[in-house]
């Protein structure tokens, strides 16, 4: 707990002075004021969080946390559990959605086994930080111990620290784990106070009876474990997942280091809720890349008061939406730093 | 007219067989079916228009058509007329929004003087195709002659042909011209049947009285010229602009060559309306990069039945939104062509 408390102590509120400085510069660029809309808002948000107008090369990085979920024993997913480890191998081979979209940015992809139910042979590129081979089934008791919850947060914090040390100035958590929308819905329901039905969706593709069953399973897990909504670690250990903890930890450490974080979809935003409950100043450092079709995502975004940049009907996860968000945020900083001003370009400004 | 008729004869409907082929491939990739949402739709749309699954390097190109508008004599813009030529110089110096955002893609930017009211000295990089030093004031009579309207279309067609010959497989029109939202609103009102008030906005930043005046000016121009909504050339020459003609021509030639076109905002979509009225098969080749805050933009998009990809509150023009759209479309083709399939990656597909 000492390390976690140390991280939390280092997090400061974002600095609105920097936001105003960015606004002044944006207003002096050769374009009608405000005409780049939310791109201007992105630049301001980045600057206020990072406290620099020009961060230079961003080295955008997606850290994909893979983990399994004991609750898949209840039949809550359209895909079998072994897909988690198969997809880890796909990430390492470069064939998954996140690999392809990150290459478009280009952004680095790191793959972390934080709790996959599979013994990987030594694999180049795989970062082994397995806490356990999957969580326990949360309808029978806590998904993990409280100590494991802290451990999962520290895994994410370590990875964020490493990325920042390597020069990364724009970070995103990604995830893979059959069953992880079940854990994310449970966490979102408890932390936001929404009903389970309001924040539970079809994940990778359940049908209507499957969705109904998933909702019942989550309700059962909550009534068995009675997580305390005022204690984020209690929620994480009882109805969370290892990747949710790691995502929360990545966000906390990134905030402590003033590295803005791009949330992908539902899972990463559920992780952000945990981080936010551990430290209220977290929200200012976050971008929401897109609006996922998972209904719980909007509830979590509303709770954090963050508006997504894209709305493309995506629901793949892995960090794929965040990769697209990277492009927009980088573009916003290029506008801020590379466009000419009215005076430098000799363009007449409006006279009013 | 002969050249224009030749272009129109070459335009064929998009091919749904290619769209289905793309869908089949997308469904075999290692992701839940449909989980990349509108990115999948983009890939399908591109493939159906270009009739290839893998176009290779796209060499995305924005062709910025700059022109002045006689109607600025009526005080319809927040910026003075000289800003058009000043911004052309800014484009050539690389300091404008479109330069910075195109560099992010990266995409080529070409700058065409199709009717700026300024004598440019010989300028490296400036493509001189001036039809006249600005249109005439449309409240006093036609903005241009019918022959000039055809000429402006052919300027756009020539530039599209050159880009395609140079290897471009994704094209966007951009524009610069103080007063051009006035012409775009006039064209959109006439071609869609909406009232002028419904399709007229504040452009670069008019206040409420300024907007009211702009609406009255457009209404006067339409009542003076009586453009025939069933004759797109009549509409273009009476209440259009040289850049609107060039945009229409760019689109028509691109369609004839099966090069998909990304519309930026209101001006390029108004140009697309003209192209669409000249040939109904045009719509299938078009992408709408974003939803501009100009109210006429949504009306024009609805008319073409095309849904924008982004909604970022942008209203700069120049092609800036299209540059962001390039990134998404290129990403969608990377997904289609670079992701692993379930069988190639050894990932278990769902069993239903």
Task: Explain briefly what this protein structure is.
The structure is a homodimer of 352-residue chains. By secondary structure, chain A is α/β, with parallel strands linked by helices.
Which helices and strands appear, and what pairs or packs with what?
Two copies of one chain form a homodimer.
Chain A lengths: L1 H9 L5 H13 L8 H14 L10 E7 L15 H11 L3 H8 L3 E8 L10 E3 L17 H20 L5 E6 L3 H13 L15 H18 L6 H8 L2 H15 L4 E3 L2 H13 L7 E3 L6 H10 L15 H19 L3 H4 L7
Parallel strand pairs in A: 1-2, 1-4, 2-3, 5-6
Helix pairs in contact in A: 1-10, 2-3, 3-13, 6-9, 6-10, 7-8, 7-9, 7-11, 7-12, 9-11, 10-11, 11-12
What's the assembly state of these chains? homodimer
Q: What shape does the CA trace of chain A take?
A: globular
Radius of gyration of chain A: 20 Å
- Largest protein interface? A-B, 59 and 59 residues
CATH class of the largest domain in chain A: Alpha Beta
CATH 2nd-level architecture of the largest domain in chain A = 3-Layer(aba) Sandwich
How many beta-strand segments of chain A?
6
Helix content of chain A: 40-55%
Characterise the protein shown here.
The structure is a homodimer of 352-residue chains. Chain A has 352 residues and is of the alpha/beta class. Chain A folds into two domains: 2-54 and 336-345, 5,6-Dimethylbenzimidazole Phosphoribosyltransferase, Chain: A, domain 1, CATH 1.10.1610.10; 61-328, Rossmann fold, CATH 3.40.50. Chain A is 50% helix and 9% strand. The first copy, chain A, contains 14 helices and six strands. Chain A has helices at 2-10, 16-28, 37-50, 83-93, 97-104, 146-165, 180-192, 208-225, 232-239, 242-256, 266-278, 295-304, 320-338, 342-345, and strands at 61-67, 108-115, 126-128, 171-176, 261-263, 286-288. The first copy, chain A, has a four-stranded parallel beta sheet, sandwiched between helices. Chain A has a two-stranded parallel sheet with strand order 5-6. In chain A, helix 2 packs antiparallel against helix 3 (37-50). Chain A is globular. Chain A starts with a helix and ends in a 7-residue tail after the last helix. At the A-B interface, helix 3, helix 4, helix 5 and helix 13 of A face helix 3, helix 4, helix 5 and helix 13 of B.
């Amino acid at each position: 707990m000492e390390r976690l408390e140390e991280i939390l102590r280092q997090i400061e509120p974002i600095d609105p002075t920097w936001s105003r400085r960015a606004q002044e510069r944006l207003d002096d660029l050769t374009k009608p004021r405000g005409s780049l809309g939310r791109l201007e808002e992105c630049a301001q948000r980045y600057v206020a969080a990072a406290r620099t107008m020009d961060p230079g090369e961003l080295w955008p990085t997606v850290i994909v946390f893979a983990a399994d979920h004991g609750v898949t024993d209840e039949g809550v997913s359209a895909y079998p559990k072994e897909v988690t480890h198969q997809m880890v191998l796909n990430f390492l081979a470069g064939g998954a959605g996140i690999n392809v979209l990150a290459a478009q940015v280009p952004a680095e992809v790191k793959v972390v086994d934080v709790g996959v139910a599979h013994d990987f042979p030594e694999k180049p590129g795989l970062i082994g930080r397995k806490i356990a081979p999957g969580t326990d089934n949360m309808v029978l008791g806590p998904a993990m111990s409280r100590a494991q919850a802290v451990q999962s947060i520290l895994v994410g914090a370590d990875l964020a620290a490493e990325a920042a040390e390597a020069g990364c100035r724009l970070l995103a958590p990604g995830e893979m784990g059959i069953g992880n929308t079940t854990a994310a819905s449970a966490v979102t329901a408890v932390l936001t106070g929404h009903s389970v039905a309001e924040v539970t969706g079809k994940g990778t593709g359940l049908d209507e009876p499957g969705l109904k069953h998933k909702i019942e399973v989550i309700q059962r897990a909550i009534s068995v474990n009675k997580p305390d909504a005022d204690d984020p670690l209690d929620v994480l250990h009882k109805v969370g997942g290892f990747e949710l903890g790691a995502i929360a930890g990545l966000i906390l450490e990134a905030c402590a280091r003033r590295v803005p974080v791009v949330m992908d979809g539902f899972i990463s935003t559920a992780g952000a809720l945990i981080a936010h409950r551990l430290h209220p100043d977290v929200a200012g450092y976050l971008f929401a890349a897109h609006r996922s079709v998972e209904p719980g995502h909007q509830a979590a975004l509303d709770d954090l008061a963050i508006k997504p940049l894209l709305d493309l009907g995506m629901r793949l996860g892995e960090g794929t939406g965040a990769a697209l968000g990277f492009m927009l945020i980088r573009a916003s900083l290029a506008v801020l730093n590379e466009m000419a001003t009215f005076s430098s370009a000799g363009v007449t400004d409006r006279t009013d």
